[in-house]
From TrEMBL:
Belongs to the trans-sulfuration enzymes family. GO terms for cellular component: cytoplasm. GO terms for molecular function: carbon-sulfur lyase activity; pyridoxal phosphate binding. SUPFAM superfamilies: PLP-dependent transferases. Gene3D superfamilies: Aspartate Aminotransferase, domain 1, Type I PLP-dependent aspartate aminotransferase-like (Major domain). InterPro entries: Cys/Met-Metab_PyrdxlP-dep_enz, PyrdxlP-dep_Trfase, PyrdxlP-dep_Trfase_major, PyrdxlP-dep_Trfase_small. It comes from Dispira parvispora. Keywords: Pyridoxal phosphate. This is Cystathionine gamma-synthase. One of its GO terms (biological process) is transsulfuration. Its cofactor is pyridoxal 5'-phosphate. The modification N6-(pyridoxal phosphate)lysine is found at residue 202.
Length: 398
């Protein structure tokens, strides 16, 4: 049985942090404050069940629904402007599911994650022919306009409302992959999005310990159809991942806002070295450029305060003067992990060229965690000076 649990009326206008903690409480069936992990694959049927007519409160088989998954999807929908959320086993599984659901003949695609483009390519080779057009090309009815906001890996932003207005004027759908800036940083439905996509392994999960994908839609009918299709595809989120994600959503707002503040301040500090007026002992001539929404020249038509009322994402890109420095820098740091992915409580960075050949070998994608800004600055200053003057020289000075 497919379930669609709506948030209680008194919580639909509550603050995001309140919704993240309380939106699913009406689905609890015990005195436990924290819900249990649902591990059962099958559930007892009621005695009065009839053929293909299960009561709406009935869970039948875990590929279709579980009590915990219903709670998770209720919270996810609530914090996305009371939308309707559908969960998947991975972000790319959610991407593929949405393509199957919408069956677009044309996709207007901007810059962004290479994995999403690879999934679209697989769909085109195995399922249906799709014409890929520029994000700024004229749209037609039935087109899928596919935006990342912010863009991976630079953390720069786009004007969602501009593309939403263009899409809807021509009968097209707008998808916003908001993985790099979840609520409370942005609410894409307020900017005109029809669908919102997340890889929940990033900020929604926030601890580098669970993988999943999320589609949120404005329309209850779309969510119901997506759940039916998910049952047939078998692309459900695992029991442990469901529990971990629900647990992590309780602290989403406080985590994301703090990461945004730290990243924005760190970016401004690093940019002083790019401009040749370094602060706090930063060396000049190591970092060539920093890419982040806070440094971006935005279009005059974009209402930044409306689109990002609480700040920008915590992912940015560093471009070094040399490839050797870009590859070496992550391994000189003591408070950052040289690892792929982003959005966790620990700072990570990745030589992006190793994963995505379209990216410059002189760049690193950086994801700021929850370490203290002062400690990050001290660590980065030491490592950047080691790149310029040599590790042995800096080690001797320390």
């Amino acid at each position: 049985m497919i379930h669609n649990k709506e948030t209680p009326l008194h919580l639909r206008t509550a603050a995001l942090s309140t919704q993240a903690i309380h939106a699913d409480e009406h689905l609890g069936c015990s005195a436990e404050v924290a819900p249990c992990i649902s591990v059962s694959t099958t559930f007892r049927l009621p005695e009065d069940v009839t053929t293909n007519n299960f009561p709406t409160e009935t869970h039948v088989y875990s590929r279709e629904s579980t009590p915990l998954r219903s709670r998770l999807e209720t919270v996810l929908g609530a914090i996305h402007d009371n939308g309707h959320a559908v969960t998947y086993g991975a972000g790319l599984a959610a991407t593929f599911a949405l393509l199957l659901h919408l069956k677009p003949r044309r996709v207007a695609l901007g810059v962004g994650y290479h994995g999403s483009k690879a999934t679209l390519d697989l769909y085109m080779r195995k399922v249906a022919t799709v014409e890929v057009i520029s994000i700024d090309a004229p749209y037609k009815s039935g087109d899928l306009v596919w935006l990342e906001n912010p863009v991976n890996p630079t953390g720069e932003v786009v004007d969602v409302r501009h593309y939403a207005d263009r899409a809807h004027a021509n009968g097209a759908f707008l998808l916003v992959d908001a993985t790099l800036a979840p609520p409370p940083l942005q609410q894409p439905f307020r900017q005109g999005a029809d669908f919102v996509l997340h890889s929940s392994a990033k900020y929604l999960g926030g601890h580098s310990d669970s993988i999943g994908g999320i589609i949120i839609t404005r329309c209850c009918k779309d969510a119901t159809e997506l759940r039916v299709q998910r049952t047939l595809l078998g692309s459900t989120m695992g029991s442990l991942e469901t529990w971990l994600l629900l647990r992590s959503l309780r602290t989403l707002e406080i985590r994301v806002l703090q990461q945004s503040r730290i990243a924005t301040q760190l970016v401004a500090w690093l940019h002083t070295a790019v401009r040749g007026r370094p602060e706090s002992g930063l060396p000049v001539g190591v970092i060539a450029k920093v890419y982040h929404a806070s440094l971006q020249k935005l279009p005059p038509s974009m209402d930044v305060c409306e689109a990002f009322p609480h700040g920008f994402g915590a992912v940015f890109t560093l471009e070094f003067h040399s490839q050797a420095h870009a590859k070496r820098f992550p391994y000189l740091l003591r408070l950052s992990q040289a690892a792929t992915s982003f959005g966790a409580v620990h700072t990570t960075m990745e030589w992006r060229h190793a994963i995505d050949l379209t990216q410059s070998p002189k760049t690193l994608r950086v994801s700021i965690g929850l370490e203290a800004l002062s400690d990050l600055k001290q660590d980065w200053c030491r490592a950047l000076n080691a790149l310029k003057y040599g590790e042995d020289v800096v080690k001797h000075k320390l």
